[in-house]
Fold this protein.
Amino acid sequence: MIAAGWILLPALGAATIPAVTLMLTDSWVAGLAAAIPAALAAAWWIERRLRSVVDAITLIASGDRYAALPERIGGGAMTDIAVAAERMRQSLIDADALAVDQRSREAEAKLHHAGRAFFTQRFRSTVVDLVGAFDKAGEEIKVTAADLGSRNKDMHARTSHAADAAEVAARDVGAVANAARALLALIARSSNEVAAAKVATDHTVDQLGRSDRTVRSLAAAAARIGTVVKLIEGVAAQTSLLALNATIEAARAGAAGRGFAVVASEVKSLAQQTAKAAGEIGTLIHDIQHAVDETVSVIAAVSSSVTTMSEANRQLTGILDHQAVDIDNIGTRAETVAGTLANVLPAISAVVTEVAESGSTVLGTAEDLVGRSEWVSGAIASYFADLENGSIKIGVLHSLSGTVTASERPLQELLMMLIEQKNRDGGLLGRPIEPIIMNPRSDAKVYAEQAQTLLAEHKVAAIFGCWTSASRKEVLPVVERGNGLLFYPSQYEGEESSPNIYYTGATPHQQGLPAINYLRSQGRSRFFLVGTDYVYPRTTNAVLSGYLAANGIGGDDVAERYTAFGQTDWHDVVADIRGFARGGRAAIISTVSGDANLHFYRELAQQGVRADKIPVMSLTITEAELPALMRSNPAGHLVAWSYLQAFDRRENRDFLAAWRRFTGRADAVTNDPMEATWIGFHMWAAAVEKAGSTEIDKVRRALAGRRINAPSGFEVKVDGQSHHLYKPAMIGRIAKDGRIVPVSVTEGLVPPQPFSPWIAGAKSPRIKAA
């Protein structure tokens, strides 16, 4: 019993010794006194070991999935405690995965209900507008009805007045018609007189013609008489002269007897001429008398005709004078009727027009209400259809559990933020975006299965997801067969191009080669390439090895090592790195993926590998993994990306602020794959808007050559042929406060060059037309 008690003492420690009273001899007391210091030392050692275990378990219990137990625990109960701690860690990891999955389901449900609320709000606005339209139409109809009543009364009064005026007008029109008929009869009766007047007028015209001719003959006769008279005057003068001569001769008497004969002869001749002239004068006078008689006769006939015409005119004038009063009365009545009708008819026309307009208004309002009723019926049907199928669905294919959880979970959360923002701004094409969230559990095969589900069952317009190249390779044939779109946000090895994938992360030409160039500028000329054993690290390192060889670096100056996913034991690998670095000027290029980085950096710290001696240039570590890494003292080590959170640009500050508001964490961080996710989502949304459709082929055409201002502050661009981005290249150094500080940034964009000329046996680019 006593011996057994001594055996137990070192294991239990002084604090566990039961308080018992023993009957001991002096020798026993002396032996006990000598054993106590050794027991106390053993107890201190045991407590220290327990304390390290308790501290690790405390970290595990607080949610630190990367807290490590002491490597050399020993056997027995301590081993059992370590096993229990690991089980607790796994239980916590599983519980965390369940919690994350539950949160993702809640986020999905939230956005699903937000989509329903989107349509409900739009439908509610429609109903409110419709009710308002009905109310307004009702008021308009009431006003129009009252107005119609008033206008009907007015029209009745005006119609009665118009009827009276029309009756008077009818009587006046009858009088006008009777007067017109009487006038026509009188005109008919006077037609004989008019005809007689016409005959008399014609006769007068003839007589006047004859008178004209007679007067003309009188004028001619008068002219001839004048000639004869002159001739007689000449004869008379000569006769007088002869008589004078005869007198003279007679005085001489006989002395001139012969002269009498001559005188007598001349007198005779003159007498003959006188007789002849007298005869002509008589004839002319007879002619003149006859012409005068005819003229008198003509004048008498003209006078008679004028008398007849005057009588006819007098009778016609009398008839017209007799009817003038009636005609004037008819005109006055016609003017009165016309005035009455002119006053009444426009008023009637105006009333009729107003009534017609009011009726048309009421009819139009009724038709509008009918149309709105039909429209609201369609809106109701559309509303219920939209509740189920109206949103634009996108697939979120990121792991929420497994080895790449820390890397992919922020991308899934960022997509929720971007979708909420887009829906808050009115959605896309007037429709909300709804995510279908998957959890491939870091299993490459599951990515392919869930991608198929997203395309075939959920009919998503696009998929945002994948992290590792292994998962992307599995998904590639799925999206090509189903003509889907995958936006892949991770840096990758290149050597691929698909019409159904948009590669928004960096290629080796944009990440690995700038990393090598930076290290060489810092005097490093020997490189240890370490990565996880899958396609991305192996292909990337093949590119880097080819590039280094082209620059004269190869052989013993380049080493490669690959480990399994989730590798936890890095002792031998780090030992090899230390051995490689003894040659000097060495650097490490790391393509280690997922949680294995925590164990890798921890082992580096434990073996004393410092950044100033052997810097690690990681192509996989981002700001998201740094909080867990900081206990391994990674300060001074490097990363290479196209985006760094600490890169100070207005666009980047806005991006970070929005992310922190969304998460509710003031210390929330962003990283390169998050920016690549942001770029992919916004490019897709812009292309959908431009295409006016989510149809894949139209969206793909709209994406070709598209540019966008990225959070980095650079305007990145899609290569329309290879579907990669032109992006900047940045080198960052891990600071002691957990930030990654930029130390080198390209001035412009680096072309993607997905098919590297540096890889041995490079394949021909497999590029399909967009």
Q: What stands out?
A: Confidence is low (pLDDT under 50) at residues 1-23, 762-770. The chain is about 65% helix and 10% strand. The first strand starts at residue 392 and ends at 397.
